[in-house]
Amino acid sequence: MNELRPALDQATLKTLYQRAARRYDRQHRLLTLASDQRGRELMVRDTVRSGDRVLDAGCGSGLTTGLAARAAGPSGFVTGLDLTPGMLDQARQKTVAGGAALIFAIGDMTALPFSDESFDSVLSSYSVCPLSDPEFGALELYRLVRPGGRLGIAHSAEPQNALLRRLAGSLEGLLWHLPQLSLGCRPVEVLPALHRAGARVDLDRLIGLPLWPFRVIVTVKPEASAG
């Protein structure tokens, strides 16, 4: 899918997001006509339950983290993890009162510092898109979900219409030369890998602009069968 747009290296990504931290919310909202926030809300609504232990992986500026804290409620606990200190500074400023307890930590989505099945729900909003191996990143997130728990991912996707797909590819090829705008994000596909891992799909929806849609997926890790 992304042969013409290979992933940026991690050092470059960290620098880009550090520099973009203060403008990220405005920039992403403008470029997506606010469909990015719709994706976050849809994902959290179908993933997080009251009292959950939640991981928001690649939490960025904390918009999803705040939604998760409200959904998990006072009995919940939410961890926001990101590679970039500047993004975490923005996330801390969005801490909401009356929701779940919140902590923030520096970490790499491809080597998450948590034990298997540590969380009731795991979230990733637009954070697998820049990874060099998005499928591996999604499986690393799935590893952390307890049996019966949920994984929610929102990511950039390709248009379904062939003509729009070609047009989007041409425009994205131009944007790829402006990394301060693209931030290394490109269409990815992770659901087949989660299918192979045994995940049950509860939600699979394409939203957003026709040229630059987002895919929102929510999967459940099956409970171990008795006996």
Walk me through the structure.
By secondary structure, the chain is α/β, with parallel strands linked by helices. It has a single domain (10-220), classed as 3-Layer(aba) Sandwich (Rossmann fold). Helices cover 38% and strands 23% of the residues. It contains nine helices and seven strands; from the N terminus they run αααβαβαββαβαααββ. The protein has helices at 10-20, 24-32, 35-47, 63-72, 85-93, 134-143, 162-175, 179-182, 191-196; strands spanning 53-57, 77-82, 101-106, 119-125, 145-156, 200-208, 213-220. Helix 3 (35-47) runs parallel beside helix 4 (63-72). The mean pLDDT is 92.
How large, in whole angstroms, is the Cα Rg? 17 Å
Would you report the number of β strands?
Answer: 7
Largest sheet strand order: 3-2-1-4-5-7-6
Question: Which topology does CATH recognise?
Answer: Rossmann fold
Query: Helices and strands, in N-to-C order?
Result: HHHEHEHEEHEHHHEE
Count of spatially separate domains = 1
Shape: globular
> Can you identify the CATH superfamily?
Vaccinia Virus protein VP39
End-to-end distance, in Å?
Answer: 41 Å
Class of secondary structure makeup: alpha/beta
On the 0-100 scale, what is the average pLDDT?
Answer: 92
CATH class call: Alpha Beta
For the record, the CATH architecture stands as 3-Layer(aba) Sandwich
Q: Which ranges are low-confidence, i.e. pLDDT below 50, for 5 or more consecutive residues?
A: none
Q: Treating each run of at least 4 consecutive H or I residues as one helix, how many helices?
A: 9
Relative strand content: 15-25%
Helix content: 25-40%
Main sheet, how many strands, which sense, barrel?
7 strands, mixed
